Amino acid sequence: MNLFDKHSFHIPVLGIGYTLDTPVKVAPYGISSVISLVDDGLIEQMREFYSKKFDLPFKAITEKVDDYRAKRITSYLNLVDELIKEKYAEIKKSAIETGGELEKYMSLLPDLSSIKEKFNLAQKSQQLKKEFSQWIQDHLPVGSIDVNIMTKLDKTNYKDNEALPSEYNDAHAALRGFANSNLSSSIVLSAGMNPRLFSYFEKFKDFFPNSQGELKKKIILKVSDYRSALIQGKILAGKGLWVSEYRVESGVNCGGHAFPTNGFLMGPILEEFRKNRETLLETCRKAYTDALAKKEIIPPTELPTIKITAQGGVGTSEEHQFLLNTYGVDSVGWGTPFLLVPEAVSIDPSTLQLLSDGKEEDFYLSGISPLGVPFNNIKGASMGQHKKENARNGKEGMPCTKRYLRFNTEYTDRPICTASRQFQSKKIEELKAKQLPDAEYQKAYDKIIEKECICVGLGISTLQSKGIPTSATDKVTVCPGPNMAYFSKKASLKEMVDHIYGRIDLMGDIKRPHMFIKELKMYLDVFKERQEEAAISDNNKKKKQLIAFQKNLVDGIDYYKDLFEQKKQEAFDDLKKLVNEHPVLGIKL
Known about the structure:
- The chain is of the alpha/beta class and about 600 residues long.
- It is built from 20 helices and 12 strands.
- The strands form 3 sheets. It has an 8-stranded parallel beta sheet with strand order 1-10-9-8-7-6-3-2.
- It is globular and about 85 Å long.
């Protein structure tokens, strides 16, 4: 990507609903963002909302319709595409009218953008104004309408108690919904490998080069290390499917699920990508061209390229520029801070206020997710309060209405959700039968009831922000990363973009650790917790993993020591203080 033409940031997926209509809001201004395809019911509600808002015909796609999940997704994505194209045409038509939409577009661009330079020159000459007006008709960038699938959320679906074929599984149907849409954009695959889903991509021609060698639909892999990127990239390339971007995410994450590695830190991971970028590219290119030849598909005339992008925990213009300059990434993902930008995301006023008031101690890694993966959370969210109130009234667990996170078969043949009343009641009965000491019982009980219905919770705020009626028992789960602690007020889109590019500072004088130090602190906490678990466990595999975890952390700390001594003394001082105050690794700096 040419950083002097387009934006050097993107907005990653935030929860199930928060970025569901973000492209409608920001894509016309050249900003790329990501829609979650988890909840087709919520997607259908948003399609109805926008159809009514713009006086467009709407016919509901009910669950009685064959393949309703995929059809709902396709219909919504086509509507989003249509709305963006109309707004984008309006911006181009406004040419360079003072105060017009094009002026807003230009004001958001990086200061060194060649497009902005052309715009400023055009304001000084009638002839240049005419030439620029013609130029933007064909060259003005529009933001990408990307979508996200968590590959493991691929449960089997049933009709009349009979399991449907695998193409009706959740992730398969979501992929089909995107593939059948009019979009020319990318699908972001997260949460690991799903070989059956990878093979399903081969069913759709838009993922293969057309007669001009172009890809209408592209694949982005969200990865946490170089090795997994190489493995997955080669697997897909061997099917004739090109990974156009590897999206590296920090353990601190952009919010929501945090997928901690076995102690591999963000800096060393990005360094490995920087050093091995050409190897990754060439390895996958060969497998790709060989696979296309076997499928008798003419390969593109220009060799395919890859982008490396980074996200998770970035919060200052300095960090943004540091990632671009030090590791040569093509774009930086800004997630959590945009939860304070209603112009960009869909969030209700109460949750917005909760986030803006939150202090460092209010944001924490929780165990609320039924996936069993740590989940970024904030104290005081309404779903958490509702869950505790239910438990006090002897009604642990929640009704499972969405059914997206049904994975547990401990008590049933067909999977159920660990946040459900069905599961938790059985688990608590089993716990009571053990007759444990009070303290031990309470600890185990709290762990059981910590799980909550994030399927509902991550979409309710979106509906409330639109004035769409919700049930009184439907409460909000919010998914901020720890970075939110350093942003303290609602911001406009212009303010947040200006903060990213260093034109203003939304943090003021707040003392904030470098994003790499913040991630290291999280990993030290994770290591300490696993160390305590290993001390009372006979699981030798876990103990070996802990040894590897410790080595990876020590290696990462050595890398940061050299990096910060050369580039950033303040971060080096914070690194030294953190390591010396957390002796779990048995090292001193």
